[in-house]
Amino acid sequence: MQTKLKESAPILEVNNLFASTDNLPILKGVSIKVYPGEIHAIMGRNGCGKSTLSKIIAGHPSYNITKGEINFLEKNVNSLEPEERAQSGIFLGFQYPIEIPGVSNLEFLRVSTNARRKFLKQEELDTFDFEDLVKEKLELVKMDSAFLSRSVNQGFSGGEKKRNEILQMALLDPSIAILDETDSGLDIDALRIVASGIKKISNNKMGIILITHYQRLLNEIKPDYVHVMSDGQIIKTGGSDLALELEKNGYEWTDNFEKEN
Amino acid sequence: MNGLITLKKKTKPMQIIEKIKTNKLLSNPTEIQKICLEKLQSNPLPNLKSELWRLSNKSKFLKFLDFSLNGSSTNFEFPYQNNSQNIIRLIIGENSQININSENYSINELNNEELITYIKQNVSSFDQNENWSELLNLCLSFEQNILGLRIKGKKIPPLEILSHATHNSINAKTLILIIEKNCNLDLLQINLGTENSSLSQSTYFCLEANSSVNHGMVAYGENKSNLLNSLNVIQKQNSEYNLGSLHFKFNYARFEIRIKQSLGNAKTNIKGMQITKNDEQIATYTKIEFNGPNGFLDQINKSLADDRSHAIFEGSIIVPKIAQKTDASQLSRNLLLSNHAQIDTKPQLEIIADDVKCKHGATISQLNEEELFYMRSRGLTLAEASKLQLGSFFKEIISFIPVPKGRWDLLNKLLKQD
Amino acid sequence: MVNENLVKDVVKEPYKYGFVTDIETEKISKGLNEDIIRLISSKKEEPEYLLNFRLNAFKKWQQMKEPNWAELGYDEINYQDIIYYSAPKQKEKISSLDQVDPKLLETFDKLGIPLTEQKKLTNVAVDAVFDSVSIATTFREELAEHGVIFCSISEAVKNHSDLIEKYLGSVVPATDNYFAALNSAVFSDGSFVYIPKGVTCPMDLSSYFRINSGDSGQFERTLIIAEESSSVSYLEGCTAPMFDTNTLHAAVVELIALDDASIKYSTVQNWYAGNEEGIGGIFNFVTKRGKCLGNRSKISWSQVETGSAITWKYPSCLLLGEESIGEFYSVALTNNLQQADTGTKMIHIGPKTKSTIVSKGISAGKSKNSYRGLVKMGTKAIGAKNYSQCDSMLIGDQASANTFPYITSQQQNSEIEHEASTCRISEDQLFYLQSRGIEFEEAVSMMVSGFCRDVFNQLPMEFAAEADKLLALKLEGSVG
User: Fold this and answer.
1) Residue B342 and residue C417: Cβ atoms within 8 Å?
2) Residue C474 is assigned to a structural domain of this protein
3) Which residue of B has its CA nearest to A173?
4) What is the total count of domains within chain C?
């Protein structure tokens, strides 16, 4: 296991988080700390709460935090609006990127990039400068500029949608990126493109959380920590070898962890 | 109901109706005015309980009639500059004889006889209730406010025709267009309301075989302006009629569309939109009849209601036995943005022919929450995200209105005003 | 082209239930006035409040006008030419089925509803109504063990007067509409169901309505009350003999569901529809409405409407309780000169209420089949949702199919979605089935029943099979 310098403060600190939707408890005490430069993986069966965790960190209005806190860059963000979180550097890569008919992808990317730049007290970009920036970033995910003129995610294939997510990550340059099943629905080539894009974007100031079912993304991007979630809790944490063991033994193997705890 | 009660008690004067009843509307009525007055006299108001009028705000409707008639013209400017040489602009009521004859096309004013014949033909089939708006319009339209054009040929420059109301009065404007065979036309019609005014606009289209028209209808008012806008279209075989319409900023507005594919085998595309705010009421009624086989219709109507306003859409599609192989679809999409606003929609199908493809749909909702969250998670504020979503809601309709690109700004500005 | 005539042949099947039972009946004289109403009430030995209820309704009815907005074409009804009370003569008080006139038992036997101890259906309790009166109710003791009351409404008036006084007219007020007012004035009998708190009714309950005499109207009234956390499934079937005059059937059905209660109400309506020329048949003008009074309560209507010369009904739900649910599943088949104007009203009043509407109309012959429905979101219906789907199938080029959805919303935080389409049986589909060796008629009925599948799935099992058969019979000879 790699050891990271933990002198600096964590980027993200989730502290004993309980959350529910429609009075149904989903998270039952989740804690996780991500320091700069770290890559974490969260694994678990469908319905274990891992996607919910990512949505709650991003501020999805359908969920209520009933207990615990989310600290981002040492500030409690529990009550921040989703856009405030995004502007301050929390990025969520959606498992199912939403199609928004009629809204041009380019316009959408420009407005969101400028919102982030404004927060960072950087100069906002006009249409021309922005197009230059996008073209540079398009390279990272091997996307054609034709995608820019289409409506957001509309008519995109599964792979194209995921690449569009990574493009957004590149443009927004977040402090923490939570990528929810970015590998699902990708063929092996698309997976490589996406993974290499993520690697190029990541840096030693950024934290990354990969949410996934499978080992294959983790072969491309080696995590420092692997967490296993079950029924709204993290039941085991280990190094990247934990994911390999999971792959080998299946999730049934993890059922014993709960008994251990 | 309140309106009906007021009506009986006659506590509110309704200048126009009083004048129709007592036959003191015009000192020297034309033949057409006489015919229509006669039709209206026995029963000068539509049946406010009937399907076509039941949702109409009665007191607003009665206020519409509460102005004195103004037939004179005032000098009026188009609301924006003409920055292209290539557009023909006409203002109803302010034009001298129009006769444009060029190599490829001609636009000629109908002579009086032609006009009378055409209008009479239409009036003869008018129903006092269903065509009340047209009958009122023809009663009130002075000769100089009736513009009839015969259009022939190809490569016709885009046409812009403006109707406007004058302050503190009711104005009536009538437009008749005969589009000859094989003719293609782009037309933008603008109806402008002004503060404290009522505008009655009726438009008649006759599309001869193989002709096509792209028709834009942009109507907007100011504080306390009212509009009764009716549109009658007859489509002959192999004609194509495309309508993009936008109505907003009227205290009270009704847009009544009646389209008849008289022999079938024609194409109709309609994309309409109405935006209501404050306590405005804007309604769209459409009736599409297929009187022959192989007709095609694609219709979408969008409403957006905010504040305490009320938006209404009622559309009917009529497919008689003769109209086999009709393909018609009608969609009503509505956004309700306030808890004090109301939306009513009633898309209806009346079908006898069996070999047809007909469908309709309707939704009423607010802005899509998942889409909003997605945009907010990328740093857009709720207001920005809503604006983008509303923009996309409009875009499909507005892009269908044949307006040269330079004017987009104008439309956008108008839409953003409150 | 699919052979028109062949299809027409497929829809013709003689009405199986058109026989008349020859039985001595007690009828009062024709006509309607206050004395007649007093007479009906006294024959039924009713308490004062009920007589007043009737008289009040009658007074209002006289001031009302027969509605005409549905544009249904029928000759004016002469309300003075109808007999408002007709009952088979039998011994004074019947304590067991043995005392029921064998002719009546035989009648119900023939209709497929055996009532006697030996033959009665094993899993369904039946209330059999013959003209104006209920003649027998099966399984009463078994139901009583669970506290379930299932009896004729006349009996309920005598034995459960408090419930009747409290609930009768509470969902459909006596003055609700012209035909409801008429019914409230002259109703003769019908079924009463009471499911106590926490009880799941151990078997399906069923009423079977039989009109026998040609000159009496049928005005039955059904009242179902489901207390907290109870549930019941209720079925209703109808037939009538063939007469060449029109008979008026103006029923009122009221359902009340309290907290967490659920009522499922299924109808298979096969009144005599008149002949091919449109002569005779029942005028079926019915008011059915359920009130989801309690939180999380649920009322589900399913109906298969195949009979009657004219059907005019809109089983509706008033969704008052929080998270209450209303459902409407309907198949309406019209043939020859039948007219049907049917649909539902879903009135969303409480927050998080949900409704689903699935309507399938099949029009054949020269019939007219309309869906008419109202979905309304009131100002307090926060988070309410509706989904409606209305499909029409046209058979032949003489029939008409109409869709009139009325949609209105005053709550921004609610969603309404409505879809409608029309289709016909395509030649390609028919050919495909036929090329696999399926007979023409079989192929047609397969496709019709496929078209209705979503609705049939909602019916209780025995009913679903029955409905399928009924549709196939009705359609025989009409497809082409």
Assistant:
1) no
2) no
3) B378
4) 1
Segment holding B46, helix H or strand E: none
Please judge whether B379 and A119 are an interchain contact, meaning their C-beta atoms are less than 8 angstroms apart.
yes
Q: Is residue C142 part of a domain?
A: yes
Say if the Cβ atoms of A112 and B380 lie within 8 Å.
Answer: yes
For residues B49 and C473, give the distance between their C-alpha atoms in angstroms, rounded to a whole number: 42
Q: Quick one: CA dihedral A61, A63, A64, A67, positive or negative?
A: negative
Structure tokens at B67: 């102005």
Nearest to A107 by CA among C107, B395, C436, C68: B395
Write the CB contacts of B10 (distance below 8 Å, at least 6 apart in sequence). none
Q: Residue B294: which region, alpha, beta or left (left: phi > 0; alpha: psi -120 to 50)?
A: left
Q: Which residues from A are below 8 Å from B400, CB to CB?
A: none
Is the alpha carbon torsion for B75, B79, B84, B87 positive or negative?
negative
The distance of B180 to chain A (nearest Cα, Å) reads 36
Among candidate residues C320, C316, C300, the one with its CA nearest the CA of residue C172? C316
Question: Which among B243, B341, B323, B329 has a CA at the least distance from the CA of B284?
Answer: B243
Q: Which of B215, B213, B156, B172 is nearest to B65 (CA)?
A: B172
Q: pLDDT tens digits for B12-48? A: 678 888 888 777 777 788 888 888 988 888 888 999 8
Provide Rg for chain C, Cα atoms: 22
How many residues comprise chain C?
A: 480
Q: Which residue has the tokens 């088979």?
A: C88
Are the C-beta atoms of A254 and A229 separated by less than 8 Å?
no
Q: For chain C, positions 176-215, list CB contacts with chain B under 8 A.
A: none
* Residue for token pair 């044949």: B402
Q: Do B359 and C415 count as a contact with CB atoms less than 8 A apart?
A: no
CB B282 within 8 A of CB B311: yes
Beta bridge partners of A22: none
List the structure tokens of C62. 């006289």
Kindly state whether residue C445 falls inside one of the protein's structural domains: no
Cβ atoms C347, C377 nearer than 8 A = no
Return the residue matching tokens 């996934």.
A212
Q: How far apart are the first and last CA of chain B?
A: 30
Mean pLDDT of chain C: 84
ipTM for the predicted complex: 0.81
- Residue C425's nearest CA partner among C363, C371, C368 is C363
pLDDT in tens, A17-43: 999 988 899 999 999 999 999 999 999
Q: Do B382 and A81 make contact, defined as CB atoms within 8 angstroms?
A: yes
pLDDT at A16: 96
Burial of C42 from C-beta contacts in 10 A (0-12 / 13-18 / 19+): exposed
Q: Is the pTM of this model over 0.90?
A: no
Closest CA relative to residue B209, chosen from B244, B183, B191, B189: B183
* Interval A115-125: pLDDT, tens: 899 899 999 88
Q: How far is B300 from chain C (nearest CA, A)?
A: 14
Partners of A146 in the β-ladder: none
* Most distant pair of Cα atoms in chain C: their distance: 69
CB contact under 8 A, C402 and B361: no
| Domains of chain A in sequence order | 12-260 (3.40.50.300)
Phi, psi of B213 (to 5 degrees): -135, 130
CB atoms within 10 A of CB B210: 15
Give me the residue from A86, A102, A151 closest to B378, CB to CB.
A86
For chain A, percent helix, then strand, then coil, each to nearest 5?
A: 40, 30, 35
The CA distance from B108 to B103, in Å, is: 14
What's the CA gap between C172 and C287, in Å, rounded? 8
Domain membership of residue C7 (yes or no) is no
The helix (H) or strand (E) run that includes residue C114 is none
Q: Which domain range does residue C104 map to? A: 18-429
What is the number of other CB atoms lying within 10 angstroms of the CB of residue A260? 7
Residues paired with residue B231 on neighbouring β-strands, in sequence order = B203, B257
